[in-house]
């Protein structure tokens, strides 16, 4: 399609007129980032001026930045929890937002082990859809011809609940996939999925994965890109294929559908996809029956140009596995978002994973940045004067992200640590460093040091009756030896009476007790999503942690300031620990989890 030269973009030649307009929008927003930020804050404050929260700080009708910053504190979720609980319990007065709260988006757990509830309003769906609409126009600059095939994306909905006041509470992507914006999205030749909506929207994870994989196999020669939200999700899909290829090949050969697919709408939908194809069945069998699965993605889907997955932050641990399965295909990280807010996009999506940086789109929310010193112990108390505006951040420095949203979060600390890598026009570009205080993560779970400590304390009570105690411990997220990955916790025990030492049964129960102590996001991953494997305790011999300290000191650590790391990922340290293991124990059962939210 010929593109009007007036719509050409500094980012590159657009693939079509629709793309040209999207790229032009990105340019306008990033060129005028400060003015857009000023307008966004004014809009948020004007529309929400009569909310209980803003009236509490006596803003009056002021909508300017200086007044706002002088009167509003910087807050965390715990500060906002009383207001959120009132909304969850049914209070419909304008507490945080003048617009009605339409639902809650669930985020990673609180200190009490429950999911955070992030309030949202209906128009936020349009804002998220806007950001999604910018992704393919940027990708088309780097990968031509994506309109000539399809994307095999493994997308899933998760369980949702209702609060005591009747509002739905669910993950942000479940909200989006169930929205009319997603279900009735217009046809776009650059963004065609192999998976029908019925497969994506099936709440049973097995039925959803099975039918999405089956559709992907039937369309194998049309697939130009594979994706999932997180890298862990795509690896889980490959593992699913390893376990279920024989049944999938049977369905392809016979033109029938696995009787385990019981969802009526899904069965009806799949009837138009499933057909007998002996040649394809033979091919799937030949490829999947081999012991060697290296390059399996490009063997089965030979026209794949890239993998579309998040591999930043904790997901970086999956890069070697993805490279193994894909034969080294490019890994594209396209956008940066959370339950609280959608933030921005990667303007160079085909860059190396270590070079991924996201350009913050200034129209999404009002953004501030708290300078972060990695060598300083952080405090919940923050001097608001230290925060800087979007356009005033400095290249090379790290910041914690603070947001003010249309839905009613004001100067809210998201908990993400970002490093400024540069600017696109006047909008900064950030490398995602990590989630603040997170030690362990396999999928969407996030376990911090306090939570891990609490889990160890609770589990160690089971061995106290044997005259044993946990002297020291550390941990790591093992994503290489098992799929799905699992938590590994190293324990060094002090056993007073070796004859009466805790046995395998007791230590296995310790694993389960640790899992019971972890947050609901972790437990849902174990029970409902099958995205996390059983927790493992590796008991190391006495004196191991002293050897660990000696090693750290030999590398320059101060003996006076040395602290046992509660999470390790440095290969020599892990090799040292593993060489001292005397026994291994796994959780023997699933921890307790139900979708009902505790009041």
Automatic annotation (TrEMBL):
Pfam families: GH3, GH3_C, GH3_M. It comes from Trema orientale. GO terms for cellular component: cytoplasm. Transmembrane segments: none annotated. Residues 358-435 form the GH3 middle domain. Keywords: Ligase. One of its GO terms (molecular function) is acid-amino acid ligase activity. Belongs to the IAA-amido conjugating enzyme family. This is GH3-like hormone conjugating enzyme. Residues 451-570 form the GH3 C-terminal domain. The gene is TorHCE1.
